[in-house]
Amino acid sequence: MTASTTLRLPTVLAWRDYDPSACELPGMSLGELALPGPPASESDRLWQLGARRVRLPGTIDLTAGADPGQAAETVAGLSLIRDLTARAVLVEWDLRLPTAPADAWQALSHLQPPRRIEGPTGADEALRAWQQGHYLCKCLWRKGPGFVQIRDRRWGELRRFTADEPDYEDTIERLTYGAPATSVPAAVLDDFRTEKLVLDIGPLSWWLPYRISRWLQEPMTV
């Protein structure tokens, strides 16, 4: 059983527009929304409801250690941020990082930037770099006939990772909403770790890239 079968997404606040001033107008607030459905479907449901700005409660905490419950909560929040980022929804969230390494934020830099970062020295500078360098399609994966490909620009240059072995696609599916690291093939997971395509959160490993829902430009140029 993977963690995705037990993830509970947070209740969120949502609005129909990206602009905070527009969100103050009558009828623009969607209020507080519970997300009880399967994690894979909730970003679609929010989009269909008209959500274009979403605020998560609390803080995504990557310092909480190995507690399985806390790990599942963190994975749930990050999964929602990733899936909404893929839809170009404005996500308001806060992040707490460990004090080292100082560049830990870069693994997450394809996601909508948080409102604030807590923890490491230089957090304010990291946040500014994240905000200034963020754009859609920065780290994504796609599935073709008989292969998967990841395109990753989080580190400045374009990095490509292509695999045609079935184990890779299956592992991505398992890790998309978090799974125990011991539940997927070790060799495949090691490859993904080497490429910094997974994040280890307590006993869970979580898939970082998103499948794009809205292209920023023509797909062939991304």
Could you explain how this protein is built, in words?
The protein has 222 residues and is of the alpha/beta class. The protein has two domains: 3-133, no CATH class; 139-221, Arc Repressor Mutant, subunit A (Orthogonal Bundle), CATH 1.10.10. The chain has six helices and 13 strands. It has helices spanning 20-23, 39-49, 68-86, 123-133, 166-175, 186-194, and strands at residues 12-15, 29-33, 53-55, 60-61, 90-92, 94-96, 116-118, 139-144, 147-152, 159-163, 179-180, 198-201, 204-207. The strands form four sheets. Strands 2-1-3-5 form a four-stranded mixed β-sheet, with helices on one face. It has a three-stranded parallel β-sheet with strand order 4-6-7. A hairpin with a 6-residue loop joins strand 9 and strand 10 (159-163). The longest helix has 19 residues, at 68-86.
Short summary:
The chain has 222 residues and is α/β, with parallel strands linked by helices. Helix content is 29%, strand content 23%. It has helices at 20-23, 39-49, 68-86, 123-133, 166-175, 186-194, and strands spanning 12-15, 29-33, 53-55, 60-61, 90-92, 94-96, 116-118, 139-144, 147-152, 159-163, 179-180, 198-201, 204-207.
Strand-helix topology:
Elements: E1 12-15, H1 20-23, E2 29-33, H2 39-49, E3 53-55, E4 60-61, H3 68-86, E5 90-92, E6 94-96, E7 116-118, H4 123-133, E8 139-144, E9 147-152, E10 159-163, H5 166-175, E11 179-180, H6 186-194, E12 198-201, E13 204-207
Parallel strand pairs: 3-5, 4-6, 6-7
Antiparallel strand pairs: 1-2, 1-3, 8-9, 9-10, 11-13, 12-13
Helix pairs in contact: 2-3
